[in-house]
Automatic annotation (TrEMBL):
<dbReference type="GO" id="GO:0005739">
    <property type="term" value="C:mitochondrion"/>
</dbReference>
<dbReference type="InterPro" id="IPR005225">
    <property type="entry name" value="Small_GTP-bd"/>
</dbReference>
<dbReference type="GO" id="GO:0005525">
    <property type="term" value="F:GTP binding"/>
</dbReference>
<dbReference type="GO" id="GO:0030488">
    <property type="term" value="P:tRNA methylation"/>
</dbReference>
<dbReference type="InterPro" id="IPR006073">
    <property type="entry name" value="GTP-bd"/>
</dbReference>
<feature type="domain" description="MnmE helical">
    <location>
        <begin position="159"/>
        <end position="493"/>
    </location>
</feature>
<dbReference type="InterPro" id="IPR027266">
    <property type="entry name" value="TrmE/GcvT-like"/>
</dbReference>
<dbReference type="InterPro" id="IPR025867">
    <property type="entry name" value="MnmE_helical"/>
</dbReference>
<keyword id="KW-0378">Hydrolase</keyword>
<dbReference type="InterPro" id="IPR027417">
    <property type="entry name" value="P-loop_NTPase"/>
</dbReference>
<dbReference type="InterPro" id="IPR004520">
    <property type="entry name" value="GTPase_MnmE"/>
</dbReference>
<keyword id="KW-0819">tRNA processing</keyword>
<dbReference type="Pfam" id="PF01926">
    <property type="entry name" value="MMR_HSR1"/>
</dbReference>
<dbReference type="Pfam" id="PF10396">
    <property type="entry name" value="TrmE_N"/>
</dbReference>
<feature type="domain" description="GTP-binding protein TrmE N-terminal">
    <location>
        <begin position="33"/>
        <end position="156"/>
    </location>
</feature>
<protein>
    <submittedName>
        <fullName>p-loop containing nucleoside triphosphate hydrolase protein</fullName>
    </submittedName>
</protein>
<keyword id="KW-0342">GTP-binding</keyword>
Length: 496
């Protein structure tokens, strides 16, 4: 009896889903056609206006006239760029000549019928074209990201691919471009779908236990099997979340923090790297009061370089807040660069103040600046002393920002350190967005809650797994109900 009701419930819910999907199809067919300028606004050779939706044929028929031919559908050939005149829909006047291409559904970015109109990028041409498009029935201007949203809603891409497309458009460096491409290709999607699939398979096992009970119709040891699957999934997600798997540096960039005592040359270094006067430089110790950020491209990486206040005890309220912020910035840095003044070290007997020394590790790049201001005959000896004052193995680079000593080696050296420390060629999909991390952390909590339960709490356990699968669905933007049903029917011989 219970079995019948359960099966009935499942079939009813599938029907419900089918009805919903038909409704969705109808809704898609009746939605507005959207248009937008796909290139940056401004004066240029060419601008591309994209139009997508159910009224594309009417748009083409009304405003596209192939050179030497008439208007109409007969000249709409999939993915073929044609020379044409573009007409104003209101009065038929030729507003520009250009090119047009038609992409037949579903072989388009949005999966809808789509056209792209190439015109001269002029304010007057574009505004006339836009108002002409707006005048057509069922056509309106697209909202932000609406073309991509339609591609997502049609299942052409998942959320991680949509995010990667946004990253690609915003990429400024080679590493960002490479990683965005990996996302667009669907590497993250495949990984998260596999995780979600594991959660669903475990859920299917547990749901079968609820419906039929251990030993009846389903395999022996189903509960243990589900637990094993969940433990494995948990380990996989925990590994994915580990610090070594941080992929945000590839998309958002890595943070390089310059720190050290006041007056050592930190701001001078920032200005040198930025090749402009980004920070104020004076001989007055304590000039920099707050953290200053400049984004640079170093060896293809997006590097957010931070200049910080000189680390020293201070009774000045503003300076002490700056010092505190500097300390926090160093702690959170992907790469810490300590700037010390060699003459200053010589004067104070090579003592590195604790406030600075505690942040120096073998991972820190230590720059001994102002070598121009010490006796060249003693430079070798002073460098040996300085080396002894820092943790063994700390890389030490003597430089003079002012005179230029060691500065070209420094730029190449930093690029090498970054390339060596943060490989950009790995094939494993890493976490590239904080949103993914948040969902994975939530998933882990649900999996832990599941693992803390016993078979007597099977209903609760199923609930925890359902939440876990839902969290994973949120990463890719999928809905999970139908998949659970499929997995139940596929994995077990039920419903005979
Ligand atoms: N002789 C010499 N002076 C330098 C060199 N680099 C910087 N300076 C000078 O050192 C002083 C301090 O430079 P900054 O770049 O402001 O030093 P800072 O570490 O940012 O200083 P704070 O703002 O106090 O933290 C300025 O007068 C610079 O011109 C160098 O290589 N040699």
């Amino acid at each position: 009896m219970i079995r019948c009701c359960s099966t009935f419930r499942r079939v009813a819910s599938i029907r419900h889903l089918t009805t919903k999907s038909e409704q969705l199809q109808r809704a898609l067919a009746s939605r507005p056609t959207i248009y937008a300028l796909a290139t940056p606004p401004g004066k240029a050779g060419v601008a591309v206006v994209r139009v997508s939706g159910p009224h594309v044929f009417d748009v083409w028929k009304t405003i596209v006239r192939r050179n030497g031919k008439g208007k109409g559908k007969d000249i709409m050939e999939h993915a073929r760029l044609i020379r044409c005149e573009l007409l104003d829909a209101n009065d038929g006047e030729v507003l520009d000549d250009g090119m047009a291409v038609f992409f037949q559904a579903p072989a388009s970015y949005t999966t809808e019928d789509t056209i792209e109109l190439h015109v001269h990028s002029s304010l007057a041409v574009l505004s006339r074209l836009m108002s002409s498009l707006s005048a057509l029935p069922g056509v309106r201007q697209a909202e932000r990201g609406e073309f991509t949203r339609r591609a997502f809603e049609a299942g052409r891409i998942d959320l991680t691919q949509a995010e990667a497309l946004r990253d690609l458009i915003e990429s400024e460096t080679e590493v960002q471009r490479k990683w965005a491409r990996k996302g667009v290709e669907g590497r993250a999607k495949v990984r998260y779908e596999a995780m979600r699939n594991d959660a669903i398979l475990a859920l299917a096992t547990v749901e079968a236990l609820i419906d039929f009970g251990e030993g009846e119709d389903i395999e022996e040891g189903a509960w243990d099997q589900a637990r094993r699957r969940v433990s494995k999934l948990r380990a996989n997600i925990a590994h994915h979340l580990s610090p070594s798997q941080r992929g945000e540096i590839y998309t958002s960039g890595l943070s390089l923090v310059i720190f050290g005592p006041p007056n050592a040359g930190k701001s001078s270094l920032l200005n040198h790297l930025a090749q402009r006067e980004a920070a104020i430089v004076t001989p007055i110790p304590g000039t920099t009061r707050d953290v200053l950020e400049v984004a640079l491209d170093i060896a293809g990486w997006r590097v957010k370089v931070h200049d910080t206040a000189g680390l020293r005890p201070s009774s000045d309220v503003v300076e002490s807040i700056g010092v505190q912020r500097a300390g926090q910035a160093v702690e959170g840095a992907d790469l810490a660069v300590c700037v010390l003044s060699l003459p200053e070290l010589v004067n104070n007997g090579f003592r590195v103040p604790d406030m600075i020394g505690k942040h120096v590790t073998q991972e820190t790049v230590a720059l001994l600046n102002k070598v121009d201001a010490v006796d060249p005959a003693q430079l070798g000896e002073w460098l040996d002393f300085a080396r002894m004052a820092l943790p063994p193995g700390t890389p030490i680079w003597p430089i003079s920002i002012q005179r230029g000593d060691g500065m070209s080696e420094l730029s190449d050296g930093l690029a090498e350190v970054i390339k060596h420390r943060f490989h950009s060629e790995g094939d494993e999909p890493l976490i590239t967005h904080a949103r993914h991390r948040a969902h994975l952390e939530a998933t882990l909590r649900f999996l832990d809650a599941f693992l803390a339960l016993g078979v007597e709490d099977v209903v609760l356990a199923a609930e925890e797994l359902r939440y876990a699968a839902k969290e994973l669905s949120k990463v890719t933007g999928l809905i999970d109900v139908e998949d659970v049903l499929n997995a139940v029917f596929k994995e077990f011989c039920i419903g005979k």
